[in-house]
Amino acid sequence: MEELVVGIDLCDGYTQINCAEEEKTWTIPTVICRHKTEDLWFVGEEAYAHTLKGDGLIVDKLVKLVRKEGHATLVEIRYEAKELLKLFIERAAALPMREYGKDKISQLVFTVNWLEPRLIEALYSCGEALGVSREQIHIESHSESFIYYILSQKKEIWTGVVGMFDLSDEKLRYYEMKVQRGMKKSTVVAECEDLDEGFNLDILGTASGGRLADTILCSCANRIMQKKSYSAVFLTGKGFENRDWAEDFMKLLCTKRRVYMETALFSKGAAFKALDYTQERTSYPFTVICDGRLKHTISMNVLHKGQETSVVLAGAGENWFDRVATVDVIPDRQDTVDFTVTPLDIRRKKQVSIKLEGFPLRPERTTKVQVQVSFLDDKTMDVKIKDRGFGELFPSSEIQIRQEVML
Predict the structure, then answer these.
(1) Residue 161 located in a structural domain
(2) Does pTM surpass 0.85?
(3) Quick one: which of 32, 287, 298, 322 could link to 187 by a disulfide (CB 3.0–4.6 Å)?
(4) What confidence tens digit (pLDDT) does each residue in 363-390 have?
(5) Contact 300, 348 (CB under 8 A)
């Protein structure tokens, strides 16, 4: 392969990079440092070294800084958070490019703990700064990377429930995935939760701290995992690089279960997904439901050429952050626009109606309405309804209704 296919797991603590079909993982602290007297930038351990030497100014927690639209002033110059993140990504991505002697990335997948519009847009800009077109840049949640990593393993691994504990300085999180077989297409559902019992990894430096951490994890496992049949359990995160402190926890997990350790699971999952984009036919013929994906299908019942039909505006399993659907309709003896919201459990299907308040009164079937649906997150639909009039007979009033709908 002439170009690199790259997965990047971006966290505030550290960033991990994997290239598809390559074993090596780059793990880099997510920090950037500017030289005090020269326009030189350093990342990761090199940034720490220059800071300790006294000739550099360091910025950390870059993801958090972007999310709050922060900035940092270095050598009397103000840098926006997204600019610092771009400088960091450029230098981090240069490591595999130099290693493999390639200067172009054909597919790039970023994976992050939590998706939000501000960070998503910053990551697209970072990818474009690497010379990757927007169509070849993809952004997903850790839950989705977890799914693609697991589905890339032997089928026996994911025949039942797959659980995973992620332990880092930032959090203790539990993930769970299950494949639901369907008549036409199977669905993969992954859920995750931040556990309140999280602790700072510094406590693992002492025997008493290790025992406390072991007790905490045993308590979590007993609470979460009882009465479930697991085909596999995975451990990931910096906290599990050395598991000597977790003797009782490991005994508990390994009782009648397959347990695997993978410290770079998210970046490898992202790389597997990136590789799939290079294939003519996907290796993952599943509907994926997880953070970053819609859990509902949004549709409208309309009359088209004399026949009633359902128009799907957004389907379960699509990315909520880049899904925008627009359709023109002509209300017939009604003053509302009606949507059907269908979750995975179709028994909980519901109807949502938005009243056309303030629209001009016209004869029946002489008002064309433009309906646009987008999403603020996976639980909130943003609906814009605009009066488009009816040709020259009834010009558009430009009246528009906007309403947020909780799914």
Answers:
(1) yes
(2) yes
(3) 287
(4) 888 889 999 999 999 999 999 999 998 9
(5) no
